[in-house]
Amino acid sequence: MRHNKSFNHLGRKKAHRDAMLANMTVSLIMHKRIFTTLAKAKALRMYAEPLINRAKEDSTPNRRLVFSHLQNKEAVTELFREVSQKIANRNGGYTRILKTGNRLGDNAKTCFIELVDYNEAMLKDNTAKKATRTRRSRKSNAEKAAPAAEAPATEAPAAEAPAAE
Question: C-alpha dihedral over 98, 99, 103, 106, to 10 degrees?
Answer without folding.
Answer: 120
